[in-house]
Amino acid sequence: MNLLDSRTVMGDLGWIAFPKNGWEEIGEVDENYAPIHTYQVCKVMEQNQNNWLLTSWISNEGASRIFIELKFTLRDCNSLPGGLGTCKETFNMYYFESDENGRNIKENQYIKIDTIAADESFTELDLGDRVMKLNTEVRDVGPLSKKGFYLAFQDVGACIALVSVRVYYKKCPSVVRHLAVFPDTITGADSSQLLEVSGSCVNHSVTDEPPKMHCSAEGEWLVPIGKCMCKAGYEEENGTCQVCRPGFFKASPHSQSCSKCPPHSYTHEEASTSCVCEKDYFRRESDPPTMACTRPPSAPRNAISNVNETSVFLEWIPPADTGGRKDVSYYIACKKCNSHAGVCDECGGHVRYLPQQIGLKNTSVMMVDLLAHTNYTFEIEAVNGVSDLSPGARQYVSVNVTTNQAAPSPVTNVKKGKIAKNSISLSWQEPDRPNGIILEYEIKYFEKDQETSYTIIKSKETTITAEGLKPASVYVFQIRARTAAGYGVFSRRFEFETIPVSVAASSDQSQIPIIAVSVTVGVILLAVVIGFLLSGSCCDCGCGRASSLCAVAHPSLIWRCGYSKAKQDPEEEKMHFHNGHIKLPGVRTYIDPHTYEDPNQAVHEFAKEIEASCITIERVIGAGEFGEVCSGRLKLPGKRELPVAIKTLKVGYTEKQRRDFLGEASIMGQFDHPNIIHLEGVVTKSKPVMIVTEYMENGSLDTFLKKNDGQFTVIQLVGMLRGIAAGMKYLSDMGYVHRDLAARNILINSNLVCKVSDFGLSRVLEDDPEAAYTTRGGKIPIRWTAPEAIAFRKFTSASDVWSYGIVMWEVVSYGERPYWEMTNQDVIKAVEEGYRLPSPMDCPAALYQLMLDCWQKDRNSRPKFDEIVNMLDKLIRNPSSLKTLVNASSRVPNLLAEHGSLGSGAYRSVGEWLEAIKMGRYTEIFMENGYSSMDAVAQVTLEDLRRLGVTLVGHQKKIMNSLQEMKVQLVNGMVPL
Ligand code: ACK
Q1: Residues with beta carbon inside 6 Å of ligand 1?
Q2: pLDDT digits over 582-622, tens only?
Q3: Which residues touch 733 (CB under 8 Å, ≥6 apart)?
Q4: What is the pTM of this model?
Q5: Can you tell me which atom of ligand 1 is nearest the CA of 694?
Q6: What Rg do the C-alpha atoms of the chain give, in angstroms?
Q7: Residue 847: which of 728, 716, 758 has the closest Cα?
């Protein structure tokens, strides 16, 4: 900013030269006739020059540092003839500060600014060329403290022309930066000083942090701090804030620009800070204004339920419309319904929801602790963040279920018995609500505060003694009961303390007389009992109602009914756990009874001895290899009476037969799984020798299915298969290979629970009428057995999986004989050539695929039993996956096309064939409809049969199966894999 520019001053500059003959002004004008104020002095020949040129007063206009720019020419002294002695090539510049415009300043009052020398001086020559070498020099002065100043130029004998003098100061010019206005700012007095300047926000703008900039001595704006932002409803455009147009909004000063209203919202105003939701759409308080307006979700879809005793598992898929939100969760409403009265009540607090009832994120939930045999309605409601803002109806899907039998209620009444230094005896009562027959109790105990290391004892009795405890230590006990429905929950914790060693020692001593007395009493008692026995009286337990049918030589000479204890109490199965893992006696694996030198020891290790007097035989239900199989009842002391199956060993058996017979019990006794037939015990101390197992009301599965052909839903069939697979998984986990898995060796109870049975060693195959001798001498049930087991007796869990596939086929075809009447040799050949059983009728594709997987030639490619269980569980949970059936027409693909015609088969005419399968009544219909040859018949499909009027499912099956059988025989094989 100029304070003075001698070149722009039109009139007199008002400068004073002193002495008068020193500096003189040259009155020149430029091309525009404007005066050029040039002062010159050139007294180079004279001694002692002191010529001053004094400016008029110059206001500094508030600047505290000013700059003086001089433009001048200076004569080179060397170019001057003779004047070298006095000639100078510099001049001095001075200033004097003053608040007012007044003269009378003495030269010595001026303060020197600098001596000014020329960068370039000129010579005579230059003068001749009229080339003036103009020098420009700038000096600054500050800090100034007064309103103005004078400048003075002192010549001491140079030849100078002062062409222009410009006096100015520097300032940072007003700017708008980051929406803040910064005013004109004069730079500071110091050359390195930065002046902090505050800006002010432009219209419609605001700030969190007041904006600042720094004005440098050079007049530049530096280091901006903070900024202004257009307030809500306004956006920045070219350094100003402009209003948001209708349909646009800006919610916060921090947003850059106005945005279009998000979906399902609008605004008709200018300068909107938010948009309004359309009808039926909402925005939660916590939703950002930039988010679309949303609405409650639609109802969940495809809910399915799976009832397991008194638990219900629900699964569904998310709603088709989530309302535009991601925060969909589910709420389960539970109603208990009376089917007769048609009324429903809230379920109440006893129902537990896993993981929770409200705010479920996953699409499944489990309800436990429901009442047994009760109808429930569960409403699965989908909710999202705006559900509570919507007055609309609830969006839910409801599922009706009926619960089954409940697991037993917890044991509540636990009492301590004898407590010693290393043992604690306990007794308890049956739970209040056993909900079935209690099969056993599980007692968990651990030293207090050592819960990660616990022991589990299983007991059929309501008493146990925990042994091997530490003296003077507190132990925590919990007990739970098991019925066919599974385990109940554990009882609350009961704490008992063992006695210290010192107390035990003294009490042991004090017991000596008591023991002596007891022994005496015992001897007397024994004598009395023997007396009774000799006189032929019956026992006092009420046992001994055995039926003569089973030819039980009933041992009436028994004075006490119950178990006789083995070496270790076989009632109690004891396992130790540490951090959830079994610690001792090690991982539970199957122990081959053969490894026992004495087979009797094996049987008593794994099976309880039952007094024959506790068994009542009612009727013969079948014949086994070793003798009759009977049904009856078992009544053990302190226990409820149980229905049981009793296998007997016929009289006149050899020692080997006895060993083999009891071998099955030694194996069965090692298993404890709801899908493995449960061994109650054995009778070996009296004759006949018996194996007592749980009773399975519906007998063996193959006969049961044949009897109930077509009677079950697919889900029921899959449920049976699931049970068998679960049992087999357990066996394979135990390391037991069954070798004879077939529907005939599965038993089924009245609840349609399937259990694997028929365990044995080599015997198992001898016993099976299906087993045939192979070329290598073994006896093998060919149709059920994997090729590697037939070929080189490679029996593994993988070969059991093959057999399981055959069982699947048997189940889905309701007990049909695998490979029908093909000979064993043909079966071996066909399977070897890669043919497999075709899909049974109406078989879900998923099941047939699983069968084919089980029949993979490479045994390692077959699924494992745990995978089979998982797969079946998935199908059960998602019943719609079972709806796709194996296409009827593709069930026996390409057999005829590839392998000739049925005409060359066993039947000469359609009539003969239909007669042979007892379907002769349809001969006429077949002939009338063009099925007059066996070749034509071969094309018949199920649809054709229905069209022909064969409406009975049994007849359809018979005809289709026969056709299939013929086709299979024809190709000497089956479905090529
Ligand atoms: O098909 P079923 O009636 O069922 O005929 C056979 C018969 O004995 C010879 O094995 C039946 N059976 C075997 N064990 C049991 C059992 N635990 N419960 C009921 N029936 C059984 C089988």
Answers
A1: 621-622, 624, 629, 645, 677, 693, 695-696, 699-700, 703, 747
A2: 433 334 678 888 777 777 888 988 899 999 999 999 999 98
A3: none
A4: 0.42
A5: 17
A6: 55
A7: 716
